[in-house]
Design brief:
three-stranded antiparallel sheet, alpha+beta, four-stranded antiparallel sheet, globular
Amino acid sequence: MAYAIRPFRADDAPALADLTLDAIRAVGSAKYTPEQVEAWAARHPGPDRFLERFRNGATIIVAADADDHAVAYTLLEPNGHLDMLYCHPEHTRRGLADQLLVQAEQAARAAGIERLYTEASELARPAFERAGYTALNRRDFAISHDRQDGTRSVPIHNYAMEKCLA
């Protein structure tokens, strides 16, 4: 399947919200418990979040399929924080994460950003390592999660990673 890497458009927001949840729920279970996946998914609100982040200066880079539907994306903040890298489960293992990270690095360099940093999940860590990021440390934390039986604090982890561009 052919893909195009392109800038975010406002009409991508619903697809990005949906694919984020699909990715967390379908792929997350490979490295995280069902409770962790549920808490992680609950942290991701709908399409308005993408529109707000874009309006506030984030660069969102999209991978689109042959029909121009968004199937993967990354979100780069003006300070060099790469906040999100998600791919729809039906489009994983096709090099999209690698392509998106290359494009994010090019956008960062063009903006004069000298350091990229992220908090990578167990699932995303290999893509960041392939792109030249270094793991600084494992971050263990908890996500407060509202459930029918009350609020729970769910332990989870990711990795602080960085890549110097200067």
